[in-house]
Amino acid sequence: MSALFMYKEVNMLGSLFTDIEKLKGVGTARGEKYRKLGISTPYELIFHIPRAYLDYRAFVPVSQAVLNDYNVLKLTVVKKLAPQRIKGGLVICKALATDGTDDILIVVYNNVYAFQALKENETYYMHGKVNGNFLRKEIMAPVYIPSSEKMLIQPVYPLTQGLSVTLVRTAMRQALEMMKREPFETMPSYILNKYRLCPLDYALENIHFPTDEDAVSAARRRLSFDELLKLQIGMSLMKSRSRRSTAFKMDSSVSIKPFTDGLPFELTEGQSKAVSEIISDLCREIPMNRLLQGDVGSGKTAVAAAACYFAAENGLQSALMAPTEILASQHYNTLSSFLEPFGMKVCLLTGSLTPKKKAMLREKIVSGEINVIVGTHAIIQKDVEYKALGLVITDEQHRFGVAQRAALAEKGDSPHKLVMSATPIPRTLALIIYGDLDISAIKQLPKGRKPVNTYAVTGKLRHRAFGFVKARLDEGRQAYVVCPMIEESESELHAVKTYAEEAANGDLKGYTTALLHGKMRPNEKDKVMKSFRDGEIQVLICTTVVEVGVDVPNAAVMVIENAERFGLSQLHQLRGRVGRGEFESTCILITDNVSDDCVKRMKIMSSTSDGFKISEEDLKMRGPGDFFGSAQHGLPTLKIADIACDMELMNEAQNCAREILEADPMLEKKEHRTLKLDVMRLFEKEIIG
Ligand code: ADP
Ligand code: MG
Description:
- Strand 13, helix 14 and strand 14 (416-421) form a beta-alpha-beta unit.
- The chain is an alpha/beta fold.
- The chain starts with a helix and ends with a helix.
- The chain has a seven-stranded parallel sheet with strand order 11-12-10-13-14-9-15, sandwiched between helices.
- Helices cover 41% and strands 18% of the residues.
- Magnesium ion binds at residues 300-301, 395, 549.
């Protein structure tokens, strides 16, 4: 079904689908601003969900306002002072106000309208940052409502310059009235009843104009449920496309003993269990759809190699896809060393190969001469044809988008699929993020691994920290120094380069250092990575490009600068680069941030190395919504579930999706029609193609 058709269907709703400019108070100029927020119709406006709420009932006396922080106050304006014009054309307006406990100055910058609306002797609820000291207080650029206002819970919207919350509320009111005249409901009533969900019109009214917090939570629950359900149904529809087909059924009598006997180590219990679960899937006609979860360093690659071995012994090819070239080349090295002794051919196919080399490899792939193809997303490009692709493995799956997952699944008739992830996520979350994958988990690390000693220090101790690093370098070890580069912007890159230069000429003078960052060309990165692996470079100063999978057992120290800028799970991933060999390893987190949140993260990092525990803490601190918001998993963007969902709701949405699809696998029933359109809209091109 085409996107156009969907649009027409929904278009039957009529006036909600006219241009946003049709609303009173929205002209061409403001229309542009709405479009900037992704809103071009009244319909899109009513789905513009508040990011938070301001509760004006929770006001505090001025005398108890927390300084340098946001407060809600109930203030009577005593006297408005004449506006002052200062340089740069800026206008500052001030008014004296009081609540009887203390006086305060209201300060409004450059917003004469907001100031003019204030009346002397009137009382308002105000929300804003309070500066000053106990002698003299100011509330800066407050948002406010008159004290006569009945609705004391007010939404906070994602806004853009020139579009105030008041304007949005006026437009919203009109859009909601339109909806009242042409009511619609997307969810069949049996679902609303069964899952105790409020009707859509009630939800939308109360998400924007709530009367109390119960109304807000009912509204959020309904709207989050909708999104989670659609997400879940969409994922399942994607999966069922491949479930319907049949896969190569491999021969269960093929033994992998020669492979395991040839390994330089014995598989851990978790690894062996995962291998046998995978093999039993491979010997079925239904394509495997399995997630292999294991903490960093738990040895997922060996499990993948076992699966490739098994496929090759069955005469089938395997493809292993990694998110970066560095990782792909590392996997290539590992897999070739494990598999080539058995006469199996492994190749590395990445975007940076010359066209000639690529063409040559492609020929060998289509002829079946090559058994295992390792690479980046280059291996799912259309021009790569396989002779008999039986197994597709993706590493660090959360880095790939839905579209890439789908493209890979379409290679070959219907290959078995294994997805590897080092992000241990609670099962409920995994069920949503990975749809209906079966899950194998490697819970323990190989024997003899020592936990990485982790310390959090402030910048004052940097010099001493580097003293420690140098002592380890002198013992022959290597080190990583990680600098955050979150925005990938030029200025951040510049900061990282400067840092590297200063370190090389300062704290690390006399040691060989090199810089590795994401903006380098793939072959440059590879070169640096290779010399680090070969021990020619002692200290690798890098951005998060090392986060995923890089394996250098001699690297036993990691320093993480500006550690506050990383989330818990990311810190854990980073730290997983050390402690991979026989050496005692150390991770030093440097941060000057003393916020509660940061201190808590540093404490968790210093006290545990259990990835599952860390991800659960992460989940507790950030809420499941953040996992959706992080864009790492490649799922469609959710609006409300991002900020409002909880585990229980996710469970319910999961059950509901299952029930619906069991009764109506392709959503063909009339009562599921709107739901289907909604699902397709959420996934847009990704599943419609
Ligand atoms: P990850 O799960 O993070 O991808 P890797 O597959 O990169 O982990 O393995 C990490 C290291 O552990 C590699 O050097 C690998 O050779 C080693 N390794 C894997 N399995 C075992 C094992 N059973 N015993 C000892 N070392 C192992
Ligand atoms: Mg790995």
